[in-house]
Each structure stands twice: as structure tokens, then as C-alpha cells.
Amino acid sequence: MERDDLGAMVSRVGRRLLAMEQPILARHGVSMWAYIVLNALASGPMRTQAALAASIGADKTRLIPVLDDLQQRGLIEREPDPADRRVRLLGLTDIGHARHGAVQAEIRAAEDVMLRDLPADDREAFLRTLAALDR
Question: Rounded to two decimals, what is the model's pTM?
Fold first, then answer.
């Protein structure tokens, strides 16, 4: 059976996911890049802005305004690293954790709707495969 190339299929699914996520992000007052930052910091602080930029595949100069906005809104903090005061640790505030959790819960619920027609075994295999390819 003929199929489209992976890039074409992933691109179409990606566009559907972005279209699904945009209204959720807008309701929470978070841009896509801001959500990516919140997601990256949800598991714990990062040691530098450069490390954060590298981990999410963002240009450091593009990331700085996003970080400034998130900090001004009280969602992240930049604290001096006790081991090296020249370095700033980036982490979520309590408000940032709450906002991330609320956005993620809505996104996951929308993803469940998108995947609901797949049999449970296929859905689990799809998610495992995506996780493996994402490494």
C-alpha cells in the first residue's frame, strides 16, 4: 500500500495539533513559545538561558523577550545560582506551575478527543512510538 512520506503526514498532524492548541493557549494568555518554556521548566530549574534555548531548539536572542514577559507576569523566576552568582537559574513560580498545569490539562484533554477513535492498543503504541522518535 502506498503512503505519504513521514514528513508530509507529520506536518499535517502537526498543523492540526497547533490549530487545536492555539485557542487553549489564548484562553490562558500564553504564546506557543511561552508554553514551550513553561513545559521545559516544569520538571525543574535550568541553569542558564543558553541551556534552556538549546533544550527547546530556540535561538537565545528570540527567547529573551519570552523570558522577560514570563518573569514580568510572575510565571518564572531568574535567581542567582548559589554555586556561581554570574549564572541565573530559571524556574517556574507557583503561579507558573499552576498555569502550566492548567494549559497542559486542557491540551491533553483535546489530544484525547483527537485520538479517541483509535483503538486503545493503537493509541498507546502511537504515543510510545512518538516518544521514541522524539529522543
Answer: 0.88
